[in-house]
Amino acid sequence: DLEELYHRRLNSAVASCADPKAAAHAMAAMAIAGEAPPKRIISHVDPTGLDALLATGLIREEGGLLRFEDTALRETARRLAIELPQAPEIHEELAEAWQVLGESTGMAVNLPLGLHQLQAGKASEAIAPLERAVRSMLDQGRSLAAARAADLAIAAADTAAAGDSRGSTEHRQEARRLKALAMLESDRPEAAQNLAREGLDLQGGLPLCEARLSHVLAQAWLAQGQVAEAQDLLEEVEQYRHSDVGALLFAVSSGDIVN
Q1: Single pTM value for the model
Q2: Backbone torsions φ then ψ of 177, nearest 5 degrees
Q3: What is the largest CA-CA distance in the chain?
Q4: Could you write out the DSSP letters of every residue in 148-183?
Q5: Calpha distance 84→33 (Å, rounded)
Q6: Proportion of the chain above pLDDT 70, given as a percent
């Protein structure tokens, strides 16, 4: 079948290289990295293997990005790569490559960095870049992309919490608050309300974190016409505006004050 043909095409290209092991490493990294990763990312992982693959014609470079010669071929390579026992290590190498690229160029790399850290089994490290990615997308008005990134942030925070990560409840609450904001921006106040309530149901969070979640819950109620309930809730959390820390941090979750 076609899958078998694609599989043989991949194996043939790798076998034709002077260093098949390096070529297989680079191919797996490229398949895991996504549709069109920057050349610098895969070169950081295995420059020798990448050069060999480029020579086979299996992949090509277009404007500094790498692509497989065929979309279906890429999907086959990806299915094979994610089943490799060393896939977590490849994710870790890709995370390092994205971090280096971001530091050297100033590019926004939070989403791929956090994604690969999460897939590498480093959930605690993935939380911060994923949450930064969500905030950036919200600032850009990309609510659907922000919601998808927030799902990753939630997964990272929940996974870290399972390992008793310090401050895990706050991270779990913040990830849900960010997705709730994305739902509000997408005109889905009921979903935002459910996420805010879910965050508030988590035990062990700081009062300030709960106040910020309550503020989002009030926004969701207002969007659904529940004005009295929203006003009562806002009055309950108003106290946090009057502390030095609260005035700064609580502002992050309100319309007049930072995501």
Answers
A1: 0.86
A2: -60, -40
A3: 72
A4: HHHHHHHHHHHHHHHTT-TTHHHHHHHHHHHHHHHH
A5: 14
A6: 90
Is residue 49 over pLDDT 70?
yes
Q: What angle do CA 112, 86, 122 make, to 5 degrees?
A: 45
C-beta separation of 200 from 219 below 8 A: no
How long a stretch of residues is the chain?
Answer: 259
Reading the block at residue 250, the tokens are 């609580």
* 65 three-class SS: strand
Residue 225 pLDDT class (50, 70, 90 cuts):
confident
The distance in angstroms from the start CA to the end CA of the chain is: 50
Rounded distance between C-alpha atoms, residue 174 and residue 187, angstroms: 20
Torsions phi, psi for 166 (to 5 deg): -65, 135
Amino acid in the structure at residue 241: R
Give the whole-angstrom CA distance, residue 108 versus residue 249: 24
DSSP letter for 239, please.
Answer: G
- Contacts by 219-224, CB closer than 8 A, 24 or more apart: 219/184, 219/189, 219/192, 219/255, 220/180, 220/183, 220/184, 220/189, 220/190, 220/192, 220/193, 220/196, 221/189, 221/193, 223/184, 223/187, 223/189, 223/192, 224/189, 224/190, 224/193
